[in-house]
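USER: Fancy drafting a protein?

ASSISTANT:
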Amino acid sequence: MSVTIAGVTFRNPVMTASGTFGSGMEYAEFIDLSQLGAVVTKGVSNIPWPGNPTPRVAEVTAGMLNAIGLQNPGIDVFIERDLAFLKEIDTKVIVNVCGKSVEDYLEVVRRLQEEPVDMLEINVSCPNVKEGAIAFGQNPDALYDITEKIKRVAAQPVIMKLTPNVTDITQMARAAEDAGADAISLINTITGAKIDIEKRQFVLANRTGGMSGPAIKPVAVRMVWQAAQAVSIPVIGMGGIATAEDAIEFMMAGASAVAVGAMNFHNPYATVEIARGMEDWCARHGVERVADLTGIVAG
């Protein structure tokens, strides 16, 4: 069940999706975190972020909307509290990094150089405040620039997490690869909105939010397949994974590993159940190495 990405070997291909699992502390009472391939932390910024006003979460058909706004306590508290907890767990640790300028990202990446972190995942869905608040991941030149600069200072392999809110995902995937990214992960949430027709107002205070959950899976599978065809670096697939069969579908589309997100809110045992389910599926189908599933229908 092990897979290797950018020289890092994971016990199995199942990770947590950033923003849906905290740093694992909340879930440790439900599952053994060492059974996961990796814990991917909630986004971490250079200073504390308060997030968006409430209400900022809403249910939708087969999914959810969130406009949390990347609320987090900042890198100082994260190192003292979250990494102190995670370093005692026998699993790989991937830290998701967010920021509002290139300098914000670089400050966090530098702070993590000497910390017990296996990989970095860079959230390029954040607004670039110096470029009119357009997300770094929506402009291939901005994506190339931030990826290249992060690679210069990062001590760990770098995963660029791509937004699906673009016209051509392959253009973004290639920009990340050309700038030196060690891997890419996708998809992040799809922008959506919900209106309360009785109150005649948006449900979320932010009006729009990121949609996740099973409803987005077909879009995610398509984009993972397209990205995997466009680049030679590993792809980590996510977006609506609820079962082992969903995870296997992503791997067949070209993913080297998968991340489980919204399903953690519905079922805190989802990640370990999916990992076990994948192992059972491979045994039933005579698949000796789960890594052999990657891209087998990608042609």
The longest strand covers residues 92-97. The chain has one domain: 3-56+69-192+211-293. The helical segments are 75-86, 102-111, 140-153, 169-178, 217-230, 244-253, 263-266, 270-284. The mean pLDDT is 95.
